[in-house]
Amino acid sequence: MLSKVKLLRCLSLQQAPFCLKSICGEDYANSLNGVSSVLINAFCTVAEPLDADTSPAADELPELPDWVKSSGEEGRSKKFKDDNFVPPSVSYWIENHKIHAGDVDMKSVVNDIVETDIDKVSEVLKNRFESPDSVVKALDGCDVDVSEGLVEQVLRRFSCDWIPALGFFKWAEMHKAVTHSADLYNLMVDNLGKTRKFDMMWELVGEMKDIEGYVTSKTMTKVVRRIARARKYDDAIEAVDKMTLFGVEKDITAMNMLMDSLVKQGSVEHAERVFFDFKDHIPPNSQTYNVLVHGWCKIRQMDKAKATIDEMKKQGFHPDAMTYTTIIESYCRERDFRKVEATIEEMKQNGLHPSVVTYTVMMAALSKAKETEKALEVYEQMKQNNCSPDATFYSAFINALSQAGRLKDSDAVFEDMSRQGICPDVATYNTLIYIACKNLQEEKALNLLKKMEEDQCKPDLNTYAPLLKMCCILNRMKVLSFLLSHMFKNDVGIDFGSYALLVSRLCKNGRHDRACSLFEEMVMKGFVPMDCTYQILIKGLERVGMLEEKQRIEKLMLWAQKS
What we know:
It is built from 30 helices and two strands. By secondary structure, it is mainly alpha-helical. The chain has a two-stranded antiparallel ribbon with strand order 1-2. The chain is globular and about 70 Å long. The chain starts with a helix and ends with a helix.
């Protein structure tokens, strides 16, 4: 293995130009997933989450992500009893953050700091509403400057809570007596799809249809991807079929987008059906075949992937760098490195060279397979081929070193990025935060979050997920409160997986009252708790004799299931 010195020398040789009133009040109140890195999609190269002992996509799906699940750390939390402990190096930052995350009613907190329009609006929207129309009434008399930026920030901050979001959206348009921009409509459409309010989503798209030029391929892409993410594959196909009714052309771009959405959400079979249904009147292109190759490789059906490539060639399309990258990633996952090398050679023979995307996919796959030596060799190959690394490659590189337990080396690589002229992005920080949290290095993890803030690198759902889990494991209630406030202030909404994690962990740690508050908040936002989350809470309440709360939770669950 490379020593730290050798590792840094190699790098230097190539320059590259979350009501939780009882926890934190309601600061987060209406507003998480794991490490974000890259498995490149064969059609459009959009980054997909890398399963590095964690699986992100839980913000809209009713399955628990891996970071919520037990990781053999149950006994360790007993060692940590100080709820109010804050690591010294971040204590000043946490204690003096713009919004204080103490166990206080959020209204009193907001009243102390309400100076900006977003805070004035949030003070209203933090309450519970039965419908968007009740939100509109509550906002009457709200003295704010309704700008495009304010509407966008509110829609992002309340992206997981559709009632206040849609209510504000309607109120804001009436208040300024000017139609929202197409971008704001698209954002609201996406929020409704995210919370699976598909009937309302289509109703909003219908409103957009009446405004010339508002419904575009961008709108329909958001619609189709949200429907596919809900595993409503046939509905996603139907959405594309009726695109023309909204004035959007059903062309090869739409076909590829639909197939890509189906493949990403686990149904290459539906994508193949679309291919056969459309190909006679919408001629496929190389991207179409790449989507299918990616889909078959994703479910490890290499024979079908190769057959697709053969068909691709028959139709006059040559495999490109993305085709080969998809095959290479699949062989890396199977640890068939002989075929990896053979595929790279075939690439070169066909006049193609591995790109930074190819090397990143190889690094990520080898890291997942715990083939550290070979992962490090990828960097050497990259250097020899004069291919400059980017922030995404460094994220995969750091993850590979960390998976091998080489934390000092991974830190050294992170520090060296700036010297190479590469600024860490949110994925890089998310990788490092995940690693620190996995090893219960709370001070390091929090300092990384602080550095993100200093570098004006906006955190996302994947940033907070491991931090929340770590705080639950260590019983750090004060830090947990701070994080939830920090999420809200960064317009990151609390999602299904985060609720499941926090209800379960708080209950296991004896915080049944807080777990109940969160469970209620979860239901009131329209989420239906998983049975495992419900059972943990019910059994916990029964065990400690909180029978009235147990009955209330049982009624809430019945209401959620019937809604």
